[in-house]
Write a structure and sequence with these properties.
The structure holds 2 protein chains of 2 kinds.
Chain A lengths: L2 H6 L11 H12 L3 E2 L6 E2 L13 H27 L14 H8 L13 E3 L5 H7 L3 H8 L23 E3 L6 H15 L6 E6 L6 H12 L4 E7 L2 E2 L2 E2 L10 H6 L3 E6 L3 H16 L5 E6 L33 H8 L3 H11 L5 H22 L27
Parallel strand pairs in A: 3-4, 3-5, 5-6, 6-10, 9-10
Antiparallel strand pairs in A: 1-2, 7-8
Helix pairs in contact in A: 3-4, 3-5, 3-12, 3-13, 4-5, 4-10, 6-13, 7-8
Chain B lengths: L1 E4 H15 L4 E4 L5 E2 L7 E2 H5 L4 E3 L4 H13 L4 E5 L8 H14 L8 E7 L15 H6 L5 E3 L4 H13 L4 E6 L6 E4 L12 E4 L4 E5 L4 H13 L4 E5 L2 E3 L3 H11 L1 E9 L4 H12 L4 E7 L8 H7 L3 H11 L1
Parallel strand pairs in B: 2-5, 2-6, 6-7, 7-9, 8-9, 12-13, 12-15, 15-16
Antiparallel strand pairs in B: 1-10, 3-4, 8-14, 11-13
The chains are: A alpha/beta, B alpha/beta.
Chain lengths: ~400, ~325
């Protein structure tokens, strides 16, 4: 463990089983020919280059598993609300299926501390996973997504604009493109003021076609900015397969053309994502410039909301009326669900002896209860005051009402 | 004549023009050019005309806008459907490139291009970035580009025919909140002129002028006011550029009272232009403007529905004026 890693530990009050099994693993690794560094910063087995995740504490690994579960149960609970509660007004572009990407990336970032030292994340219109992984207050996020006055942004923004700079979550974005160049702008400031912070832009596969994709990458490389572009390739932008907008199988090939270090990872495996992100963060902090990570992943729900989903069941299948003519084959959805990020992360932790199946199940129950109570709190919060819509246009004051003549 | 949905009416016009002109192209992103309406065959431009002429592209509205312009300059009539998320991404191309093309070439350039641009924000919860309360003002400001905004399926089809046949480039604003409207729409092609406002109701006490997404609230308010004994004249601008000044001036010369209603920001909304043109030409009239405040549309339905002009607010303003 390095001090840096300690600083990155996700917020968590978990006191799960500690290092007995972990030490067992390292001992076994050493016996089988692994090189255990005496500086304590690395433990590389043969063939493992930059396998940073093996250095993580049990606590951190459990926190990552817990984060994946938090995202998963937030999505499932919200989908159930949309499907069963006629009074619920919130919506989401669901992130379920992609949890390992947000979790693996944000676990490599600095999420606690003064604003001028933490790393920044620019999210997308599919933001709840990124927000939870970066460490936002979940009850307040849930309240915001249901337009409550005490929500994270006072009910002004809701799902597509959730934002909490205090944890470096600059926020969701209803647009595709402009945020990426803006994120590179934050990285520009870090370099200019000599900070070791990094700026991360999450993006989907649809972003490839935007002019901003190319502008962000080109300028990030020209200026060697501490910028990480995490492209979550879930195969579809809205309802169109990415082959309609990108000639590459790996979108990372395009980033490579800008001279940027690239990595294509299995986005369903949080450890692979973490390793790639950690390498990218190390590169950025040490002045090595930008990195482009393409995570191959999949969303279990349709583009927006819960059409095709059933309460109590994970995923959405079949026809989405919003898709008009193009929709995903059910077999494709079910095939991807066989490689579930929750299952994969649990199996890794169990295989590594960090937790056993019983503890894994306990953690999941704890998370379900935590999310249930977040929704209970959020949905009892007050609604907004109409006149407040005239506030926050400028730093001070209100603008005049015009709707009554 | 048959009852037709909004999008069916629009695509019926596009389908006809594409059948007449084998060079014509259509570019879309995300929203396939498909529409159905009870009792009529489904229209699917992509399958009917093939993927060389009907292209599903990536998220790059600038490219979409520039490509139809380039196609038009090359002699192919061309149109693109730009969804609300990208409504102002092509602004620079239209404002500084397309709009000046005819003039700077001394009239030799020909640009039969149509940009269909969604104008959304009628639904609570869409929040700031998915709400368009400014694009009518922006596009109508540009010289050299005709900007229209239908409010009925009938006008939507007729204006589409006219736009596609016009030698001038046209920004065709599509108030997305009106997509649920159906109406009596003829099967055969017809044009709604690109320079005429529509008189929706005649009256002598007060003129109410609005456009696009503002019209349903205005018509509802007019019904209430008529029931109260007020004689209300209702004008649907339909065309923002070139604005039909004559119809506006003639109306207010008669009523001496003008209320404008914009489902867009107060500052420099279409209503501001209407008031200015009428004020220049009519002596002794009184004016009032109803508009969305100069604030981005918030997500909260409580805030949003209060800020959005509605029939009640419009009727209240009309009573104050009359």
């Amino acid at each position: 463990m390095t001090n840096e890693d300690n600083a990155h530990t996700l917020r968590c009050d978990d006191e799960g089983p500690r290092s007995e099994s972990r030490r067992g693993f390292l001992k076994l690794a050493a016996l089988t020919g692994a090189v255990v560094s005496t500086t304590g910063s690395r433990a590389l087995a043969n063939g493992d280059i930059g396998f940073f995740a093996k250095d993580l504490s049990d606590e951190k690994l459990i926190n990552m598993y817990r984060t994946i579960l938090r995202i998963r149960w937030h999505e499932r609970t919200q989908a159930d609300q949309m499907l069963t509660n006629p009074d619920y007004r919130g919506y989401n572009h669901f992130y379920a299926g992609q949890e390992a990407v947000a979790t693996g990336v944000c676990a490599a970032l600095r999420n606690d501390g003064p604003f001028d030292q933490i790393d920044l994340v620019y999210s997308t219109h599919r933001p709840s996973g990124h927000a939870i992984a970066k460490g936002v207050d979940i009850p307040k996020m849930v309240a915001e997504m249901d337009f409550r006055a005490t929500g994270m942004n006072g009910g002004y923004g809701a799902e597509m604009h959730i934002s909490d700079p205090s944890v470096g979550f600059i926020g969701a974005d209803g647009m595709v493109g402009p945020g990426h160049v803006t994120a590179a702008g934050s990285a520009f400031a870090f370099r200019a003021r000599g900070s070791d912070q990094v700026s991360v832009a999450f993006a989907g596969d649809g972003t490839y076609a935007t002019p901003q994709f190319h502008s962000a990458l080109n300028n990030a490389k020209l200026l060697d900015l501490p910028f990480i572009y995490v492209l979550e390739n879930n195969l579809y932008h809205q309802f169109a397969h990415y082959s309609y907008s990108c000639p590459h199988k790996n979108i990372a090939d395009a980033a490579a053309a800008y001279g940027i270090a690239t990595e294509v990872v299995d986005g369903q495996d949080v450890i692979q994502v973490y390793n790639a992100a950690k390498e990218a963060v190390n590169r950025a902090r040490s002045g090595g410039g930008p990195t482009f990570i393409e995570a191959k992943t999949y969303r279990y729900y349709n583009h927006w909301g819960a059409p095709g989903a059933k309460a109590g069941e994970l995923g959405a299948f079949g026809y989405d009326p919003l898709a008009i003519t193009s929709f995903r084959p059910e077999r494709e959805v079910r095939a991807w669900m066989q490689r579930d990020p929750v299952d994969i992360s649990r199996k890794i932790l169990v295989d590594w002896g960090v937790i056993d199946d019983a503890r894994a199940a306990e953690i999941e129950e704890e998370v379900k209860a935590e999310i249930a109570s977040a929704f209970e709190w959020a949905l009892s919060q007050p609604l907004c005051t109409p006149e407040d819509g005239l506030r926050h246009v400028f730093a001070e004051g209100t603008v005049p009402a015009r709707q009554f003549g | 004549m048959a009852q037709k949905s909004w999008m069916y009416s629009v695509l019926e016009a596009v389908q006809y023009e594409m059948q007449q002109d084998p060079a014509m192209t259509w570019i879309f992103e995300l929203t396939p050019p498909v529409a159905s309406t009870p009792g009529k065959p489904v229209i699917n431009l992509e399958t009917e005309f093939g993927r060389k002429r009907v292209v599903n592209t990536g998220i790059d509205e600038y490219w979409m806008a520039a490509t139809v312009l380039g196609a038009s300059l090359a002699g192919s009539k061309s149109a693109t459907y730009i969804p609300y998320q990208g409504a102002l991404m092509p602004f620079e191309l239209i404002q500084n490139y397309a709009s000046k093309m005819r003039h700077k070439t001394g009239g030799v350039a020909s640009l039969p291009a149509v940009w269909i641009i969604e104008m959304t924000g009628q639904t609570p919860g869409f929040a700031q970035q998915h709400s368009c309360y400014e694009e009518d003002s922006y596009y109508m400001h540009i010289p050299g580009v005709r900007t229209v905004i239908p409010s009925t399926p009938y006008d939507a089809k007729g204006l589409m025919h006219a736009a596609l046949r016009s030698p001038d480039p046209v920004v065709y604003l599509y108030p997305a909140g009106l997509r649920t409207l159906t109406g009596e729409v003829p099967d055969e092609p017809y044009e709604v002129p690109l320079d005429k406002a529509a008189m929706r109701q005649e009256g002598s006490d007060l003129t109410i002028v609005s456009s696009g997404g503002g019209m349903p609230g205005v018509l509802e308010a007019a019904e209430t006011l008529t029931g109260e004994g007020m004689s209300v004249e209702v004008i649907d601008l339909r065309v923002l550029k070139e604005m039909d000044t004559e119809t506006l001036v003639n109306s207010v010369a008669k009523t001496k009272r003008l209320l404008t209603v914009d489902q867009s920001y107060y500052t420099l909304g279409p209503g501001a232009e209407v008031v200015a043109r009428v004020a220049e030409n009519v002596e002794g009239a009184r004016f009032k403007r109803v508009a969305f405040p100069d604030a981005p549309p918030p997500a909260s339905p409580e805030m949003f529905t209060w800020m959005r002009p509605n029939a009640e607010g419009i009727a209240g303003a009309a009573r104050d004026l009359a």
